């Protein structure tokens, strides 16, 4: 599995020495901050770990020179809040990532070459996130105590995702290469969600605006009240597919090419103007 972001000329690599036995908060690992520090200063950084603190160089070996390109090599399932509030630069995780990944991200790019935990890209505003594996619940939704979910940027999960994705989503794009869990797009305000696999149940309840694009017909198990379907030729679809190809190519997932789709509008029970598009006339 190769990274899409292999064009950086230099980077700082944090190589995990051994599996972590407890939770570690990685929110301090900001590429722009680390780029201004010396290696010994970076190694001396203290991260919250279990009920105390731990030096960075106790759990990671530092390789390379500080830059705005950060590579984290190892299973980081127990490292939370990586990429939190990232505004520029890049983070590549060669392994799995923990919960709250890319929370409140406003720019830059992040890639995970494995699975990701719950609450991926909550309150994301801009930038690009690519997860080669699967992700947990509440992808692109609101953080605890927040009223809005994803507000911009592109979040791409090539595997499956859990429940409550795109809740209160306002802007941006969420692309799912696999299947989804239940209760997705609840109270969705705007934005685009694309699902290539099977859709979970009880989707789009209280949806006001936005687009949900499905690769194939799904069971009629929406929480939303939708209008009858009609087929349309939609000129924006080829632009959307071209944008996706520019982000990830077609190395691991087949990007659609159809410009035809059936459209249903709703949630009518909430006076919503959202749309559910199901692609038709696929090219082979």
Describe this structure in words.
A 13-stranded mixed beta sheet has the order 5-1-6-8-9-10-11-12-13-14-17-16-15. A two-stranded parallel sheet has the order 2-7. The longest helix is centred in the C-terminal third of the chain and has 13 residues. Strand 3 and strand 4 form a beta hairpin. Helix content is 9%, strand content 28%. It has 4 helices and 17 strands. The protein has 2 domains: 67 residues, no CATH class; 200 residues. With 284 residues, the chain is mainly β. The mean pLDDT is 93.
Distance between the termini: 26 Å
Oligomer: single chain
Number of helices: 4
Describe the largest sheet: 13 strands, mixed
Radius of gyration: 20 Å
Low-confidence stretches: none
Strand content: 25-35%
Give the mean pLDDT.
93
- Strand order, biggest sheet? 5-1-6-8-9-10-11-12-13-14-17-16-15
The helix content is: under 10%
Structural class: mainly beta
Question: Please, how many domains?
Answer: 2
SSE pattern, N- to C-terminal: EEHHEEHEEEEEEEEEEEHEE
Let me know the number of strands.
17
Brief account:
The protein is mainly beta. It is built from 4 helices and 17 strands.
Write the layout of secondary structure elements.
Elements (H helix, E strand, L loop, with lengths): L11 E5 L7 E2 L5 H4 L4 H5 L2 E4 L2 E4 H4 E5 L4 E5 L5 E2 L9 E5 L14 E4 L15 E4 L19 E7 L13 E6 L15 E4 L15 E4 L15 E4 L2 H13 L11 E7 L7 E7 L4
Parallel strand pairs: 1-6, 2-7, 6-8, 8-9, 9-10, 10-11, 11-12, 12-13, 13-14, 14-17
Antiparallel strand pairs: 1-5, 3-4, 15-16, 16-17
């Amino acid at each position: 599995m190769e990274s899409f972001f292999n064009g950086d000329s230099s980077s700082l690599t944090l190589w995990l020495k051994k599996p972590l036995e407890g939770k570690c908060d990685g929110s301090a690992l900001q590429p722009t901050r680390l780029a201004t520090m010396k290696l010994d200063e970076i190694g001396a950084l203290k991260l919250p770990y279990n009920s105390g603190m731990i030096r960075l160089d106790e759990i990671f070996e530092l390789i390379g020179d500080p830059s705005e390109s950060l590579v984290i090599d190892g299973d980081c399932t127990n490292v939370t809040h990586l990429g939190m509030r990232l505004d520029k630069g890049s983070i590549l995780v060669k392994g799995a990532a923990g919960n709250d990944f890319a929370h409140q991200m406003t720019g830059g790019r992040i890639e995970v070459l494995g699975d990701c935990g719950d609450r991926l890209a909550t309150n994301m505003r801009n930038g690009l996130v690519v997860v080669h594996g699967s992700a947990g619940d509440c992808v692109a939704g609101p953080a605890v105590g927040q009223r809005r979910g994803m507000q911009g940027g592109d979040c791409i999960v090539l595997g499956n995702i859990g429940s409550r994705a795109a809740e209160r989503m306002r802007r941006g794009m969420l692309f799912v290469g696999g299947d989804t869990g239940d209760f997705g797009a609840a109270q969705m305000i705007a934005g685009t969600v694309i699902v290539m696999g099977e859709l979970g149940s009880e989707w789009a309840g209280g949806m006001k605006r936005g687009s949900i694009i499905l690769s194939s017909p799904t069971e009629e198990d929406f929480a939303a009240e939708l209008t009858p379907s009609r087929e349309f030729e939609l000129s924006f679809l080829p632009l959307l597919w071209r944008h996706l190809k520019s982000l990830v190519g077609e190395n691991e997932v087949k990007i659609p090419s159809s410009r035809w789709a059936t459209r249903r509008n709703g949630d009518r029970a909430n006076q919503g103007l959202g749309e559910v598009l199901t692609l038709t006339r696929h090219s082979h």
